[in-house]
Amino acid sequence: MKRLSQLSVGSKAKIHSFEKDELFLKLMEMGCVPGETIRVEQIAPLGDPISIAVAGYNLSLRLDEAYTVFVEEIK
After folding, report:
1. Cβ-Cβ contacts under 8 Å for 59 (sequence gap 6 or more)
2. Who's near 52: CB < 8 A, 6+ residues apart?
3. What's the confidence (pLDDT) of residue 63?
4. What residue ranges do the domains of the chain occupy?
5. What number does CATH give the domain 2-74?
6. d(CA 74, CA 45)
7. Which residues of the chain have pLDDT under 70?
8. 31 contacts 59 by C-beta, under 8 angstroms
């Protein structure tokens, strides 16, 4: 299992779980629910933020936000 912040552009993964903090509910409301498939679309030139495709739209996350999401990479 990896953290979302560790994935590279083009990687696909399924959301597994979250660290327990105030960001958990915010991400769930935006479609980042356990079992949802995501794809890393872009990473900014300096590495922050990243853009992911989730639930039919693109979502930008800061690296510290992506760090709280545990994923299982799909090969």
Report:
1. 30, 31, 32, 51, 52, 53
2. 4, 38, 39, 40, 41, 58, 59, 61, 66
3. 92
4. 2-74
5. 2.30.30.90
6. 24
7. none
8. yes
